[in-house]
Amino acid sequence: MVQAKSWILAKHFDGFPKNSDFNLKVEELPEPKNGEVVLEAVFLSVDPYMRPFSKLYMKEGDVMIGTQVAKVIQSKNSAFPVGSHVVSSCGWRTHSISDGKDLTPVISDWPKDVSLSLALGAIGMPGLTALYGVEEVLDPKEGETLLVNAAAGAVGSVVGQIAKIKGCKVVGSAGSEAKVAFLKELGFDEAFNYKTVSSLEEALRKASPDGYDCFFENVGGHFSNVAFQQMKNFGRVAVCGSISIYNDSTPQIGIFPHMTINHKQLKIEGFQDTRWKHKDAESLKRLMAWCKQGKLQCREHITKGFENMPAAFMGMLKGDNIGKAIVAV
């Protein structure tokens, strides 16, 4: 019998999450049936989407949602032999049983010198989100200027690097001097700390006096309102997230930018990576190739210990991480 631990949403978040919102549950797993496998978590992901999705799709008492890289430790399913690794959406669990339908094998020729944790980051969902947001939604042309906020995070850092591969000028906003230095290391043309600039409007104008052709939006709120004003005519905006408002107990009431959108004839599109799921296999190979070629650098912020899942999640929401936030079991 395998002893499994899981983190439960004890209480829906009211404002910023706190330790009392989570409970640790321990249970014994039954033996797998024919067609099933037993999984052991190796790396787990903590992501911003978990905050709003918990309210939309979870009830109190549910296991926290999320993905992990897991190792098959028992198998009665020939498609998933013992010792193979998969990406699973089973949530915050150390061990789980699956019939295989919800599992995605890691790339078959995954290089031995590349950590499997990247299957939760630049060579996984965040990387796909960045790739599809840039290519399918923004479709930047060589020489255009792209703005991305939360630029030192799991998605934003990949967005900027893909835009550079495509010959764009890239401007990034982040929340610390260490993050700004990281963006410079990645090859961003301009980067600034939004927390310390005296004026966000002036910082954006200084970084690109002629304005912006593309805007990859991760933050929402005040940043959006200011950035919209500096978009070029016929500019494109890919709305990936709005982390600045995820923890608000009372919804923000902001400026209504409809006149600006109309006057500049902006195209604003929300998206999720699952829209292009049929392209995932090819896209993951492209991301891996860029990684191996040195065109895509993959920074991770790793927290050790399954017992630290809530702390890693809350730290990510506070912006403690540079790159992808990962928990190593």
Record the SSE blueprint.
Blueprint: E1 2-9, E2 22-29, E3 37-45, H1 50-57, E4 68-75, E5 85-88, E6 95-98, E7 103-105, H2 125-138, E8 145-148, H3 156-165, E9 169-174, H4 177-186, E10 190-193, H5 200-207, E11 212-217, H6 222-229, E12 231-239, H7 258-264, E13 267-270, H8 280-293, E14 300-304, H9 309-318, E15 324-328
Helix pairs in contact: 2-3
Helix-strand makeup class:
alpha/beta
Give the rounded overall mean pLDDT: 97
User: Given the structure, what is the number of helices?
Assistant: 9
* Unreliable stretches: none
Characterize the overall form. Answer: globular
N-to-C series of helices and strands: EEEHEEEEHEHEHEHEHEHEHEHE
What percentage of the residues does DSSP assign to strands (E)? 25-35%
Q: Main β-sheet: number of strands, strand sense, barrel status?
A: 7 strands, mixed
Work out the helicity level: 25-40%
Would you count the extended β strands for me? 15
Rg value? 20 Å
Account of the 3D structure:
With about 325 residues, the protein is an alpha/beta fold. About 25% of the residues lie in helices and about 25% in strands. It has helices at about 50-55, 125-140, 155-165, 175-185, 200-205, 220-230, 260-265, 280-295, 310-320; strands at about 1-10, 20-30, 35-45, 70-75, 85-90, 95-100, 105, 145-150, 170-175, 190-195, 210-215, 230-240, 265-270, 300-305, 325-329. The strands form three sheets. Strands 3, 4, 5, 6, 7, 14 and 15 form a seven-stranded mixed sheet that branches. Helix 2 packs across helix 3 (about 155-165). The longest helix is centred in the middle third of the chain and has 14 residues, at about 125-140. The two termini are about 20 Å apart. Its EC number is 1.3.1.48, 1.3.1.74. It is found in: Cytoplasm. Belongs to the NADP-dependent oxidoreductase L4BD family.
